[in-house]
């Protein structure tokens, strides 16, 4: 019971507590240690003393006391070896191993402080404040600041999503490593390095000013989206890890609550709602891949679609009302042409446009058909804002639906011609599986089966996912 | 064409990687092997023992020399070989990027020049 309460408090409040503890010192690792100690103490004492009326405030107070103790013994602290990056780097991220939130997980945490005996007293020693006197609901929520720290330009892009999972959701470093298919010590090292950087470089726990929002928000959105996208990019064959789609949605929804006036934030929340709503329908009865246009709409999650539509309406209203404030409108496109959440002249950002496209597809549940013309308009806007290979290939398929397969093929051909044959992008297109699968499909629709066969063969040779390969093989003309 | 995907990385002992650390990674390699097999591209997949178990043999100087240890003492070592039969380099890259080892090591993709099959050396197309 007490354990269940402790875990509940952990799940709901981990990020709030950690951001409060880390913000003043920028010492994320120290805050994690302090919070882990507080959770440990809760698990030890709550079964006897009862669950406090204000568990979050209790945890905050105990953790703050721990932080103060650590500060008071800074001399001793410097003698504690930070061995994670040292020659014995195999011991995992014990500093970051804050609490195991997995099924039935207890707050297991290796006691790194050798010789530093844990106090066994049931009550925290001389608390700074009486937890009962703290109104936790009135305590400021610093998670938004924490998200901006995690996705700060000075933090390596590859570690931003893992950092969010660990600091906002309290994920164990090992579980993050598993999700990203990275060995545990390597992930632990990246996380430790990032936290050192936050402290060492003095990355502030602050929400950027409006003028900087256009440049600072897109990496936050991309990192949250990255939590959803790992499923799609990293897995070879059958998924060997749990999907983090739920966590991505939680982060996106939280971000929308904390930053409710940014259209792209709602765009991202909408995109995730609408995409996740179709998860079940992507798999047929025999475990086969079911493409979007063939999915049984009765297997879509109507409630989640409604949530997505609400976010999309909000995003649209905000973008129309304040076009200049749309993320990235000030030209943060800069060096990276594929920057995620930049917005075009229209003020509609990448995520909002992608969500709008998902919404058009979802409308089939009500109307029975897909409005391809609207999809093309949206897709064209998306290509202007975020000219990724994926968006371009998707546009070719959409054009084909409106103007016929030859028009779609012409768009694919134009793509290849537009690229410098020596450039890396050209090679990337030449081995981009969706481009070949789309080409094969369009050649078939255009009545060119011989060329289609060759394109299917190429697409299949590039497909490492067994389900997708079976789906393609079933379409190869005899 | 036949390609060898040569996995090159720091050895576990040097990198401080423990058995426990590798456990979740085994599942990824398991899925990878199964994916290669299911796609019908797998010729061979071997993860090698550490170079501590290595022996080199040469008659280059006229006499037999058998020595402990690897040929070249480098920081990163050949750790595994995945031989696959695919259409072209693009497909080989697609498989190399899915190899779990790519997250901590480097995959060198080398096309086979000639291969001994059915009693003779053949150039593989």
TrEMBL record, chain A:
Family annotation (InterPro entries): DUF6596, RNA_pol_sigma70_r2, RNA_pol_sigma_r2, RNA_pol_sigma_r3/r4-like
GO biological processes: DNA-templated transcription initiation
Gene3D superfamilies hit by this protein: 1.10.1740.10
Residues in RNA polymerase sigma-70 region domain copies: 16-76
One matching Pfam family: DUF6596
Superkingdom, taxonomy of origin: Bacteria
Molecular function as annotated in GO: DNA-binding transcription factor activity
Region (Disordered), start-end ranges: 70-129
DUF6596 domain segment(s): 216-316
Protein name: RNA polymerase sigma-70 factor, ECF subfamily
Species this protein is from: Herbiconiux ginsengi
From TrEMBL, chain B:
Gene3D superfamilies per record: Dimeric alpha+beta barrel
Coiled coil: none
Top-level taxon: Bacteria
Domain spans labelled YCII-related: 1-111
Similarity-based family: Belongs to the YciI family.
Protein name (database record): Uncharacterized conserved protein
Annotated source species: Herbiconiux ginsengi
């Amino acid at each position: 019971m007490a354990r269940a309460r402790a875990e509940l408090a952990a799940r709901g409040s981990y990020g709030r507590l950690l951001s409060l503890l880390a913000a003043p010192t920028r010492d994320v690792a120290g805050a994690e240690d302090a919070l882990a100690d507080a959770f440990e103490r809760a698990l030890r004492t709550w079964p006897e003393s009862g669950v406090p009326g204000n568990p979050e405030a209790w945890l905050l107070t105990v953790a703050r006391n721990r932080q103060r103790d650590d500060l008071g013994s800074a001399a001793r602290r410097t003698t504690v070896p930070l061995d994670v990056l040292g020659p014995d780097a195999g011991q995992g991220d014990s500093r970051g191993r804050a609490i195991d939130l997995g099924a039935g997980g207890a707050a297991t945490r290796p006691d790194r402080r050798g010789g530093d005996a844990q106090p066994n007293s049931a009550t925290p020693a001389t608390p700074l404040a009486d937890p009962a006197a703290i109104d936790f609901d009135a305590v400021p929520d610093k998670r938004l600041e924490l998200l901006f720290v995690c996705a700060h330009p000075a933090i390596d892009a590859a570690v931003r999503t893992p950092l969010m999972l660990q600091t906002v959701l309290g994920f164990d470093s090992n579980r993050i490593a598993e999700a990203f298919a990275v060995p545990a010590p390597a992930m632990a090292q990246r996380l430790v390095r990032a936290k050192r950087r936050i402290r060492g470089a003095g990355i502030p726990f602050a929400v950027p000013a409006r003028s900087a929002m256009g440049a600072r928000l897109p990496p936050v959105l991309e990192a949250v989206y990255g939590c959803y996208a790992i499923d799609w990019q990293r897995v070879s064959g059958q998924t060997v890890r749990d999907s983090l789609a739920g966590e991505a949605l939680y982060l996106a929804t939280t971000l929308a609550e904390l930053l409710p006036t940014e259209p792209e934030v709602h765009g991202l929340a909408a995109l995730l709602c609408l995409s996740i709503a179709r998860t079940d329908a992507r798999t047929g009865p025999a475990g086969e891949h079911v493409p979007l246009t063939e999915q049984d709409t009765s297997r879509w999650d109507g409630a989640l679609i409604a949530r997505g539509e609400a976010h999309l309406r909000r995003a649209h209203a905000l973008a129309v009302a304040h076009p200049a404030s749309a993320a990235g409108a000030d030209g943060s496109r800069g060096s990276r042409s594929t920057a995620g959440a930049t917005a075009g002249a229209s003020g509609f950002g990448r995520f909002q446009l992608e969500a709008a496209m998902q919404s058009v597809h979802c409308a089939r549940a009500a109307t029975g058909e897909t409005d391809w013309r609207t999809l093309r308009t949206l897709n064209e806007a998306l290509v202007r804002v975020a000219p990724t290979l994926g968006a371009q290939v998707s546009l070719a398929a959409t054009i084909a639906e409106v103007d016929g397969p030859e028009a779609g093929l012409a768009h694919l051909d134009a793509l290849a011609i537009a690229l410098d044959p020596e450039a890396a992008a050209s090679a990337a297109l030449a081995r981009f599986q969706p481009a070949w699968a789309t080409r094969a499909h369009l050649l078939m629709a255009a009545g060119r089966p011989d060329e289609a066969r060759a394109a299917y063969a190429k697409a299949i040779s590039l497909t490492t996912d067994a389900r997708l390969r079976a789906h393609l093989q079933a379409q190869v003309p005899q | 064409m036949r390609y060898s995907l040569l996995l090159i990385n720091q050895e576990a002992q040097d990198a401080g990687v423990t058995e426990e650390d590798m456990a979740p990674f085994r599942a990824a390699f398991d899925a990878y092997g199964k994916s290669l097999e299911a796609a019908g591209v797998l010729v061979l997949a071997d993860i090698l023992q550490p170079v501590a178990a290595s022996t080199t043999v040469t008659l280059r100087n006229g006499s037999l020399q058998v020595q402990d240890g690897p040929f070249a003492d480098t920081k990163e070592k050949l750790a595994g070989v995945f031989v696959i039969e695919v259409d072209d380099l693009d497909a080989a890259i697609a498989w190399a990027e899915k190899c779990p080892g790519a997250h901590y090591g480097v995959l060198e993709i080398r096309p086979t020049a000639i291969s001994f099959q059915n009693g003779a050396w053949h150039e593989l197309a």
